[in-house]
Amino acid sequence: MTPINELGVPRRTFLKLAGLGAAGAALNQTMPGSNDPRPVPDLPDYAPVPKSALGPALNAQGYYVGRVEKNLYWVTDGTYQSAFLTTKDGVVLLDAPPTIGHNIQRAVDEIAAANGVSNKVKYLIYTHHHADHGGASSLFGKNITRIGHEETRKLLIRDNDKARPAPEEIFQDHRTLNIGGSRIELAWKGTNHSPDNIYIHLPDHDTLMLVDIVNSGWAPVYICNLTEDVVGYMAAPEKALAYKWKHFIGGHLGRLGTRDDVILHQQYMTDIADSVRKTLPTVDPAPYFKKYGENAWAGVRGYLDACTDAAAAPVIKKYTGVLAAADVFTASTTFWVMESLRLDLGFAS
Questions:
Q1: Strands, DSSP E only, in the chain?
Q2: Does the pLDDT at position 33 exceed 90?
Q3: Cβ density class 246-285: b for 16+ within 10 Å, e for less
Q4: Can you tell me the mean pLDDT for 51-65?
Q5: For residues 157 and 290, what is the distance between their CA atoms, to the nearest angstrom?
Q6: Does pLDDT of 29 surpass 60?
Q7: What is the pTM of this model?
Q8: Which helix H or strand E contains 298, and what residues bound it?
Q9: Tens-place pLDDT, residues 147-192
Q10: Phi first, then psi: what are they for 198, rounded to 5°?
């Protein structure tokens, strides 16, 4: 396990502590003393995280497992999320984030022991091909059935990562599974965060799982949650809300979501797009290109940064204290939305 920094804190441990909001305390225990010659970086301050954004406390092993509804459960390390169904035909696992890793099986064991059901993972459904959500797949061995979108299979074969075996069973647009009496509806509704990201609807459990679109209670991280297709990303919440569900599993952070969380995210993204449309035409590029002369890229950066800052400012003001980390990542998301408006939709180009 590679340390995240020179203080020797392992990456996965750090992510788990960060999910708890305890990373600072852990690092303080290993920070150099006043006589240590190493410089301490001057780090920015951010707004407090709203209590509504936080989830349940993790156990001593670094995870939380709880019932969503009936035989559907969710697992989190405070940063990533997985879910599973216990059925008479074995356990159906929905994603396998490597930061949770072996704690996925521990969570399954805990629930199985409490309810007198099988703890054997027989099926794994990939939401999409990214390693941060499927990188613990190989922990469950070769004798399970892996299911995913046809594009997920293509991308995992291309990536050739032994930690993420490609799904053997695939679908194109829609597939309904009935495993051990539990109905699972899989759907691909176009590209969004990634080319293969799917919707998992569990109608008998009043639940929708859609990963890397909405971070319940939180702003998206860099460039719309590292999204490849902004137009598809911004359309995804409306498609999600078209389903009937009460519980939302978004794949990240420490609590389940609700329909209100998805609606709030949708409004946040709409406000960003509206702000870009309002401010972009008002920023004069001339001073930046005059200043940097033949260094065209410096002029481009200065101009686009100014456009981003102008568009992000009112959104940050509106959502700070409403969405956690709105003051941290809104500028990055604004830049990505602005570039999509310019390049995909032709606005002000």
A1: 64-69, 72-76, 81-87, 90-94, 121-125, 145-149, 169-171, 174-179, 182-187, 199-202, 207-209, 247-249
A2: no
A3: ebbbbbbbbbbbeeebbebbbebbebbbebbbebbeebee
A4: 97
A5: 49
A6: no
A7: 0.89
A8: helix 296-319
A9: 999 999 999 999 999 999 999 999 999 999 999 999 999 999 999 9
A10: -115, 165
Please name the residues in contact with 212: beta carbons below 8 A apart, sequence gap of 6 or more: 127, 128, 130, 133, 193, 194, 197, 225, 226, 227, 250, 251, 252
pLDDT at 41: 87
How many residues in the chain? 349
| Burial (CB count within 10 angstroms: exposed 0-12, middle 13-18, buried 19+), residue 213 | buried
User: What secondary structure does DSSP assign to 209-252, as a single string?
Assistant: E-TTS--TTB---HHHHH-S-HHHHHHHHHHHHTS--SEEE-SB
**Residue 316: closest CA among 297, 304, 331, 302:** 331
pLDDT at 122 over 80: yes
The region, left, alpha or beta by phi > 0 then psi within -120 to 50, assigned to residue 22 is alpha
**Distance (Å, whole) CA 209 – CA 217:** 16
137 vs 78, 99, 328, CA distance in Å?
19, 12, 32
For residues 19 and 14, give the distance between their C-alpha atoms in angstroms, rounded to a whole number.
9
Closest by CA position to 135, among listed 109, 121, 156: 156
Structure tokens that stand for 241 in this block: 């809300």
**Hey, CA dihedral for 138, 143, 149, 154, is it positive or negative?**
positive
Chain centroid to CA 190: 18
Nearest to 248, CA basis, from 262, 269, 234, 236: 262
pLDDT at residue 4 greater than cutoff 80: no
